[in-house]
Amino acid sequence: MSTTVRTRFAPSPTGYLHVGGARTALYAYLFAKKLGGKFLLRIEDTDQKRFVEGAMENLMSSLKWLGIEWDEGPDLPDNGGPHGPYIQSQRNDKYRAAVDQLLTSGHAYKCFCTQEELEEMRRKQEARHEAPMYNRKCCALTPAEVEEKIASGVPFVIRQKIPEGMVIVEDLIRGKVRFDSKSIDDQVLVKSDGFPTYHLANVVDDHDMEITHVIRGEEWLPSTPKHIWLYQAFGWTPPEYAHLSLLLNADRSKLSKRQGDVAVEEYIQKGYMREAIINFIAFLGWHPGKGIEKEIYSIEELVQDFSLENVHKSGAIFNIEKLDWYNWQWRRRKFLEAVEHDPSARTALIIAECDQYLAPEYKNNSELLARALKTVEEKIIQNPKPANDYIKFFFTAPEFKPEIVYSEKMKVDEAIVKQVVPEVTSALSEISDSDWTEEKIKETLMAIVAKLGLKNGQIFWPIRAILTGEQFSPGVFEVVWALGKEETMKRLKNIV
RNA sequence: GGCGCCAUCGUCUAAUGGUUAGGACGCUACCCUUUCAAGGUGGAGAUAGGAGUUCAAUCCUCCUUGGUGCUACCA
After folding, report:
1. What is the DSSP track for A32-57?
2. Most CB atoms closer than 10 Å: which of A42, A114, A334, A477?
3. Is residue A184 part of a domain?
């Protein structure tokens, strides 16, 4: 008999979708889809203190934007699916029933110790260089004492009674990992507010939702023994585990907000494409295997080729430069595909690329806009930088930037500029409006090259740099042509 | 501190008991070219250290070192 693979992504709604979370979700999704299984979304909101308004919606919209769709989840009809609800705060009755079972079977006990008592205990333990662990004081309470405390309204938590002995976690990525129960604390299962902790809710839900493979972050590996003991206490079969390595900052610490953007939505806002983000995070800790050098993968192709065996054990640094490269690859691919299928879509696509810098008056397809877009098109295809950067100078006259105009490499210094600019200005001013074509401009500039006996770059570089104020831009002839005679003259004269 | 995990170019990674240790990003030289870019051809750049097993270790074992995670009534 074959069981259908079921995986889940179980985020806590504390704000936004973290890129590390997105990768975890992606791997769980790919694994399930590869094997024809189901992928579910479950919201773990058992910590009321951390509740953030709108966080769940945010999480779901980022996930959907990425193209990671779930088969069962909180927003779906019919209670979200066969095992609903999919929001933990709505499943409290299930956790209560489960913990009652543990209480009667002796796998859990009520603890009445106060926060102060616990802190005091930990302080002493640390002073003695011992691992801070609960001393099981309340485990020794008689049933009568427990009754009495409850009757007098003393708040309590319910703790898991960790059995003695070793546990071996069979991890799909890491192999066998051994833990000794001596180093594992009696975990709180139900908090004094009556809500379960992650450990209880997670196990109860994964069992109830028939999860076959728990694919989650490495930070959960040390608490997996607790989960396995819980399954045993309930008499359930634990799922398979796969603990993923972390995503790291450049300094190899856990990827954090302090060192850059970690929210998927921030990358969405910056204009990254979903295909690029998916492709990039998929390759952070996974490789198609055996000498394959293909690097551009769509999500469908990832589903085809994904396997947990090719997931790495070590953490991976989130390297923006590579993301930029993926983004460019995908942008070009999408543009070329779209234009090939529908050439008339061209202008709209370019406008979409440049939207940020297009003033409303230009969107009505003015002659100037048409020219500007024409020069930008090739840059979309052949340049990694966002097309936005290639169009803004059309609409805003740049400052004179000596650090760009003067270039040692191009052999352009102040003297050259003083010599070249007046020549170019006067030569261009003689071109009649009807002759204002790229071809004519090219002819004119080439003539100056010959006349002054300079290298091409000594003319083209400074003119382009003055007109655009940018390190990278469309070519000088296109720029001059697109700007028009009047604007070109204005910008050149400004710097004389 | 305790427990766990991890370790190939700067980064993402391939290889596996025998390779000139391969690719990509980035960097870089040259070529092409109407400048930059893009493209083409090259270049620099790695098996953390020490033992052991072996004819042979990047690969297997152990130790060291380093990094990192967990050690909450957070997930």
Report:
1. HHHTT-EEEE-B----GGG--TTHHH
2. A42
3. yes
